[in-house]
Queue: 2 jobs
Job 1
Amino acid sequence: MDLEALRHHGDVEATPELVDFAVNVRLDAPPRWLRDRLAAALSDLGRYPSAAEDAATRSVVAARHGRRPEEVLVLAGAAECFALLPELRPRHAAVVHPSFTEPELALRQAGVPVSRVLLPASDGHRLRPELVPADADLVVLGNPTNPTSVLHPAAVVRSLARPGRTLVVDEAFIDAVPGEAESLAGDGGTPGLVVVRSLTKTWALAGLRAGYVLAAPELLGRLAARRPHWPVGSLVHVAVRACCSPGALAEAEAAAVDLRERRRDMIAELAALPGLRVEQPAHGPFLLLTVPDGAAVRTGLRQRGIAVRRCDTFPGLTEDHLRVAVRSAERTSLLGAALSDLLRDTRVS
């Protein structure tokens, strides 16, 4: 088992001198109003985060999703939840792939037996519940899934729940979907359901590490049992409350609608290139491409000043798969022109 492959992330490919299609963060920096909120809180950094502050943040998140405050755990980045999964003491975990690799990495490092549930490309990487081992007491999947950009129906995801099983749904990119369609964040009734949310992508907070998880209090207590004191800094609390405000939610929804239009145009431009396939339908802020001689194409793009995400580190995918973030029309044109040249060279050779 190659744990190093599971550790790979797109940020190592997006060096500053390159046009970045490798990282799925929407903005280059947080919006001005959010930076102002964070800056205003800097004078409070001389004190420890308080229980009252945590309670206030949980109340805001709970109101945003129609949950109870005790069903909210504020995180130092959504990835923290995956690092905490071994605290649930699963006997047999099933991770649905291709998907974000941090959950499997954390489970394997803790010695948890893991089964990979590989969703076939021939079926559009559609979620097939019958492929999940019946004895798995922990199931993890993404929705929409990174890097395939597939959005699974909420009813199909919910069908994986059963007595004695914890179902973890990574919704890090769901706020990039208009209306947050198929989200289970407001579902407080499905036993064993854990929903993980991130603020990193939409609000450009990768350097702050902010997110939260929604689940029954008993599950959250088990996840958090061995967290240190003050696991989340004061600025994270400020960011979470700010990004759950009505104005922020309206801005995120407008951005999701705009993303849908830009993704449609990007698909049309890239799918027209001979030899390249865009996996569809796509619902995330990124696209999964299949190209011939993918490793050489990725190297060629770097030589032309463009970074894309290699995908052979995702279980079930190969070097011929590349993930590209949805960007502006101008940046997409740069990518399309570079890919056209490289694919023509591939056909000639």
Job 2
Amino acid sequence: MTATAIYAAGAVCWREVEGRLMVLVIHRTVHGDVTIPKGKVDPGETLPQTAVREIKEETGLTVALGVPVGVSNYPLSGNRTKIVHYWSAEVSDDAVRHSTFVPNGEVAALEWVTIKKARSYLSYKSDVEILDAFAALVDSGITRTFALVVLRHAKALTRGEWKKSDSSRPLSERGVHQAATIVDTIQAWRPKRITTSSATRCVTTVTPLSVASGIELKRTDALSQDAFEDGTADIRSVIGKRVRSRKTAVICSHGPVLGEILREIALATGTPTGSYIADAASLEVGAFSVVHLSSTNPSSGIIAIETHAPRV
């Protein structure tokens, strides 16, 4: 939040019902309107965290974020602007069965409708524009997606501070804090795999995520800086396996290796390379890029890349 802007986040929640794609709209109690689920950022939250939390609070549904579908801006009183970031979010049958929603003072009802009907239901033009961005993906055959979260390890001790082997160089105090604070943000995409360079600073970076998610770490020298510098790295096989699996995964490595990781993702998906690869790979320590790929239309290549900086 700033003196002139209020930030919020939400998602176009969707599911298939008897072979038809349906999206979720909410009927709000106080405002008497129909909107896409969203809400304001709480202190200390990131936008992806907010989107997942707000959907849970408003609808009772637990979701994993998909591809980003846009940002809306609209004026508020007092010369302030509300800026809302949206993702898509597939809602599983299990999530529907376990929904905790009951009508309340904020949301009167939930309704699953077709995209066409949602356009006529939604009360605000900005919501319709977000829905149209999602519909464009659907029209391109892109519905289910998965993500490769390319993470640079958190802040480590410098080489001057560590007299032993570089591969055993540990995280600094700041790095340990970074490793802890990225967990909830990355969890917004519900990763299924964690693959990391075998270097201590990488393993330690993703250990809190492993503990929180219950996902066992896959350590490999193929992503290490030492192997990259001596020409023995095998990034292609690691990335190829992750792309073929079509499951959201975290890949933790080193600054000098990230460019090749992003390049291999592009090559593995038939996506033309360009300056966007260098941009997505230019991460500060503890930052990550989320590369979105289609599960339903592999030929679509890289759909979007979003980059998130560390909070500390």
